[in-house]
Amino acid sequence: MLLTIDVGNSRIKVAVFEHNKQVDFFIFETNEALKNFENIFQKYPNLQKIILSSVGKLDEEVVNFIKCKFQTEIIDHKSKFPFTNLYATPETLGIDRMVLAAGATLIYPNQNKLIIDAGTCITYDFVNAENQYLGGAISPGIKIRYKSLNNYTSKLPLLTLSEDFEIIGNSTKSAIHSGVINGVIFEIEGFISQYSLKNQDLTIILTGGDAEFLAKRLKSTIFANSNFLLESLNLLSLYTQKND
Predict the structure, then answer these.
(1) Are 149 and 180 a contacting pair, CB within 8 Å?
(2) What are the binding residues?
(3) Do domains 2-74 and 84-143+170-242 have the same CATH topology?
(4) Which residues are catalytic?
(5) Which of 38, 51, 106, 241 is the most buried if burial means most Cβ atoms within 10 Å?
(6) What are the binding residues for ATP?
(7) Under CATH, what is the fold of the domain 84-143+170-242?
(8) Tens digit of pLDDT for each residue in 226-240?
């Protein structure tokens, strides 16, 4: 039984895997981490291992609590990955992006793969058919775009994601929704189109907090899995065990 932990910029996601099958899932705010981990460990006292990936800030007290309870592997740049990293500045590459690339490589080896993570930021990561990580792109996520319009103007209101939006916004609020949501959709479709032109048989994986919302509105054929990073951690743990 394995526990995977994804510490993001705003929330923590946790999944329990048994025989490579996800059996439980938790999500909570970072400031509620200690209480939630105590509850999880009480519910699953027989965990064999914990594997953790972090791009956010997790208190040292919480990290030490986790380490004291169970065998814990914290993924970093020195961890083993199933791809060749050709990023020009590998030490600056986000651990979350590396874990996603690892999961995609293990599931779709020797295929061209584009992983799109629609969270706080939208990241694009490309691994070619030779299992070489080449890089990608980073852009503002949906929430950041809404906040930026409010923060950097004097009169535009702060809005949140809406299911109701059109191409032509006939009010300030509807124009903001159109610009933010359609802007993200057009951006993603544009990236997919350009990558597809240059790479045959491209497999596209969409993940992150906004994955389900976007998947219903994208024209491209994609594999949508909002918790792909947690599954990738499970796969990466198995990979490291086999290659130790």
Answers:
(1) yes
(2) 6-13, 87, 94-97, 117, 120, 172
(3) yes
(4) 96
(5) 51
(6) 6-13, 120
(7) Nucleotidyltransferase; domain 5 (3.30.420)
(8) 999 999 999 999 998
